[in-house]
Amino acid sequence: MPQLNTPLRPIALLLLGLSSFAHAAEADSDADTELSAITVTANQSPSQVGTDKIHVRQADSIRDVLRDIPGVYVGGTNNMNQQIQVRGVGESGLNISIDGARQLGTIFHHNGRTLIDADLLKRVNVDVGSHSVTSGMGALGGAVQFTTVSATDMLQDGAAFGGKVKSSYATNNNQWQNSVMLYGKPVDSLDVLGYVNYKSMNLGESGDGRPLGGDGKEVDYLVKAGWQITPNQKITVSAERNDLSGLYPARLEFPHNDLPGSQYVPLIHQTYQRDTQTLGYEYAPGNDWIDLSAKIYRSKTMLDNGKDHARFVNNQWLNWLAKLEIETVGATLKNTSHFDTGRANHALNIGYEFYDTDNSKTDARTGQYSQGESGRLHSLYVEDKIAVGNFSLTPGLRYDHYTLENPSTGEKTYDRYSKALEAAYQFDSGFKAYVAYADLFRAPDTMNAMFLSYANNTNLNDLQPETGHTSEIGLSYNRSGLLGDDELNLQTKLFRSDYDNIIAVSGPQNRLSRKNIGSGRIDGFEASAQYRYQNLRANVGFSKSDIDLYDIDPANKEPGNNTAIGRNMGAKWNLSLAYDWTGTGISAQWDSVFQRRYTSHNVEKPGYGVSDISVHWKPQSGSLKGLKTSFGVYNVFDKFYVSQSARQQSLQVPIPDYEMGRNVKATVAYRF
């Protein structure tokens, strides 16, 4: 990576140029309409990532948005390999959706499955743990639902047109990002939004100067429109693309290197794309019985890492380069009804889900096309939240009918009824207590797309679904006015999840197969506290989980690497302090994450602490109104560390995925 002798000079030019542009605007904007805070739901104890979190973090990945949530971990040093884990369960055991479109299948076990531009996020719902049948089939550790913005979210009151321009720079990897968003209402019944973002970056550096990440570019698009066809009916359409390309490590969970043999991880040209289109319909006639929403979608993910295959034609460790694809079409239908039966109030949710997903592989060296597997789901659920005074009881039942088809060995159908029950009591004092139970069920996913040419012969008759159950007890407290102008929110949760028939991929490269390897248990505890006194805000979070896998080959020191379950981590602490200066539009924030050393199950992972500091200015009036500026130093102390959620954690092994060292960021955005 070229040395940046004057890392702040581009930031100064950036601030000066865009501030001048904002100052040249002649007309004052109307009252600024802020997006609501990115909300995280966690069963009976909802919490918030924080108001305007993307702005505060100058987020360019979902890790920047989600890292404060107890029980949630996001590892990876670039957007191609960032992977979400919830309570020790990886992405293949989570239900992840973007604007209602399921993100299914594993394209390559070294890649993540969540490509999204953080600037587009309106809301993130994270079900930490799975205690509702509405989370869908497969939510072994929970569900993550991303929702992108629309024109109605961005338009200021009474305005028919608006826009937002943004530019940012980060010193560690020389990353420039520029985006434009335009939105409006050509007619009263139609709203339209268009967005494009371009980001370029070089290799970054770890705390001790080692190169990491990738050298490439990212281009993101979103077009979204809504048509209010009647006062009670609305149609929405959207098309989104994320396109990452450039030089990245061949195995994205490792930094590039020139080590011999199987540990050789060169930089190679790669392209990783996600295309998603949705069509939605909403009907709310204004009565308590019908609040209907329906959606159909198509989502396609493609990874092409075979452009440099000719360089490695004689290298046995890189003979797997290929073009991989996963395509999913699906639909959802749900309705909510509100009614009373005597003293009981009911909120009845009824829903249906369908998807059909398949994958394929084209070998870069031979051109051989491998037809993949396909999975088809039909799922029905009903859930009724019954409230009597301060007490609520929420029973639910879901039926899943899933068919997995293999081109070599035929097909198998998996059927299952799953139940869930949650009881909660809201005390007048501000305390709320709840207890929850749910069955867990995940039928086998389609095969890892990279393995298709040599591991698509698993006998499905020998492959059982992953099942289990989870239970949780929690207590929360919410109170305002304790010391005047203040608010206090506390949450604690204790949980246990048991899993049977855990599925893993194992065996020699040319004879890989999926098989059920045993059972396991995850126990854990999570707590968080948020306090605001006037303009001062403080947040503290803690999470800890212990994973035990049974009946598994003891020679494998960390069997969870090849399953959805079992990546152990130490206890995590989060701390955030923020202050707003009244009338100035200036705010400052300090964020820290502390990960305790983990030593157990023949694995040792060093602990670490990472801190960020940032300052923000948003003029409240005058010609600069609509401007937002941010300046921050991330990983302030230039900590050299490896995330405990990474595949390789030890600093003593030659290929751990080091995290980025000190990074200075500046962002200027103007909204009109």
TrEMBL record:
Membrane topology according to the record: Multi-pass membrane protein
Keywords of the record: Cell outer membrane, Membrane, Receptor, Signal, TonB box, Transmembrane, Transmembrane beta strand, Transport
Keyword Magnesium: no
Source organism, top-level taxon: Bacteria
Domain TonB-dependent receptor plug: residue ranges: 43-143
Signal peptide: 1-24
Entry's localization field: Cell outer membrane
PANTHER family: HEME_HEMOPEXIN UTILIZATION PROTEIN C, TONB-DEPENDENT OUTER MEMBRANE RECEPTOR
Similarity section: Belongs to the TonB-dependent receptor family.
Protein known as: TonB-dependent receptor
Organism encoding this protein: Vitreoscilla massiliensis
